[in-house]
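In response to reviewer comment 3 from the previous cycle, which asked for concrete evidence that the modeling workflow produces usable outputs, we include below a single protein chain processed end to end. The sequence was submitted unchanged, and the resulting structure tokens are shown without manual editing.
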Amino acid sequence: MKIETDWHIHSRNSCDSASMPVSEIVKIVPSKGISKFGITDHLNTRINMPDIEASRKEFLENKVSGFHFGIEISCVSIWEIEQIKKGGYEKAVNGIREGGPAWADMTVDITQEDIEKLGIEYVIGGTHWPLYVPWERESLIKDYHRQNMFLAQHPLVKIVAHPWWFYAKYWGKYVDRFEPWFNDFSVIPQSMHEEFADAVVRNRKIVEINLHAIILHPSYPEHFKQQYLDYLSFLKGKGVIFSIGSDCHQSYDLDFEKAARMISYAGITEKDIWELSDEDLKNRP
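The workflow returned the following structure tokens.
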């Protein structure tokens, strides 16, 4: 197994403290043996649209062979989109993360017209935060699953980013690093994995294997990583196709050889790895 693609890279235009200029990305990424790759800066809500426009401009100024323009969108609530439209949230780059109705109805704040206007070649959709549910294990698991399912069925999403990624510290809230599922990934019902895999295959989506944020992240327990690789192996057995995403923000200093060994352990080979093709571009939403 050799990693030669990377479809999840953030530039300095991203709203989440990413720092790499595109001019640096197009130099350093190929030097690591990556021949096809793309930048995917965050669009949580329309507050981030100027960031994406800046990202597109920088992409066009640094276009090289094998380099593509994507985007990472977040699953957000219809409630927060309606609140933002009313005004007064100009600095809410992560949307409105508190105060919404529990189990809020979901959406993504991008349209087909946006995709065409900005020349977006592929869309990654990610579950990035709870949608106002109680901060305890069972509720968080149910909420993350319903968001993953929403993205796996959304017509504009090509890749479901880092399923079951969870960042413990959210704007003053803190969940112990072994919660909600890091101490035992099996607390997530197998039925959820079955339902997600079936939705991915049925809707011809791609599931991301996230390097920096999950399988190589130093703060994640090794036992969790082992279980996560078993989860990826299960998804492969269900016919899921994967993409590779470094999810790099500040630097591109990743141990790709270690990541490749871990992915190989899950029984995943090059033939299971997606890369953007001319057919994808022709059939994009």
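DSSP finds ten helices and eleven strands in the chain. We consider this sufficient to address the reviewer's concern, and the full set will be provided in the supplementary archive.
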